[in-house]
Amino acid sequence: MSATRWHAPYAWLPGGLARDVVFEIEDGRFTAVLPDTPGGAAGAARRLPGIVLPGLANAHSHAFHRALRGRTHDRGGDFWSWRERMYGVARRLDPDGYLALARATYAEMALAGITCVGEFHYLHHGPDGTPYGDRNAMGEALRQAAAEAGIRLTLLDTLYLAGGLTPEGHTPLDGPQRRYGDGDVEGWADRVAELKPSAGMRVGVAVHSVRAVPREALAGVRDTAAGRPLHVHLSEQPAENAACEGHYGLTPTGLLEAEGLLGPMTTAVHATHLTEADIAALGQSRTTACLCPTTERDLADGIGPARALRDAGAPLSLGSDQHAVIDLLEEARALEMHERLRTLRRGRFDPGDLLGAATAHDGLGWPDAGRLEPGARADLVAVRLDTPRTAGIAPDQIVFAATAADVDTVVVDGRVVVEAGRHVLGDVAALLKAAVEPLWETG
Questions:
Q1: Model confidence pLDDT, tens digit, residues 256-287
Q2: DSSP letter assigned to residue 128
Q3: Cβ contacts of residue 84 below 8 Å, gap of 6+?
Q4: C-alpha triplet 189, 192, 194: angle, nearest 5°
Q5: pTM for this one?
């Protein structure tokens, strides 16, 4: 890859906001990041508008949930009623349909400045649970989708063994859940071993939840996860806590702690309904907490204790989860706004905190990304400062004003994926429409 130079009026560097920054890129890496280099001194550098941010990391995605956007608001209800609509979409997807939907969804992410996604993947087998000829056909569709959309992927292959949990115990997989399961933890680990990392993909693992994975399987997860990112849905709804405490006598966090699954390689997704002891355990173990504010409010799940988790020592990341909105700037802003609603105080997080959560790559297995500095992966996102939303703002408060619609240019590993607000694949809206509408034609 040939060397390139870019110049931006502003950029968010590890030390904060800088002016007149030149980026030199070669072989997909930043070789130099030079602040205080005015345009005239930048020579032949290509001009970027507005403020440049590091590539954004979407730490929690269910790509196929994008088909549910704007389709589930006619019945009210809660997470559990929404889940039935989600199961309807899950029944209809095959590898080709999954590829089309994920490619369009990942392209929408790129338009929003997302350069890396963690895909919490449990849609493994055919509708009746029969494996495809290639047991990882659905996972390979996600690999291809991310490559064609131009973003990196961490495939979080998810263990899903039980249909639910009550105080009496776990229930069997039923209906569309059958395509999620591998029979036992050994069968799952055997299939995961067939997945190989590539230049644009890391292979991580996930526990769907303590509802879906019995305690006796967690040791096998711990062994399979060694050295990989490990993610888990944690305490998303009070009903999950009640069932876990009723059956195991432990909170979900307490159960994971007892089985040795917490730690710096683990990400607890949602972490909404936590006790003080749960918060302390997550913080002391340096487990990342991935909050998904737009999903948590869309599904009426609640507001998580983000500031308390951060104060306890848990790093924070962000995800768009079920993609009611794909906008990591909105997720970051919501982290602060939800804290304001919960505490009646402003300034719980500063802009640097919020951008740090939106660019956190460590929990996805890409520790060399998410920073505008020499040696890091050459990901950058130029956000315009002259739109109706951003005109007149202080550049260092971009996270409180901009939306995905203000993203102009996105570079991933040195490759231009979005320019002047247009994706290299062309009309992403048309791709989304073509992928989503067939999933609703029969129901």
A1: 999 999 999 999 999 999 999 999 999 999 99
A2: T
A3: none
A4: 120
A5: 0.96
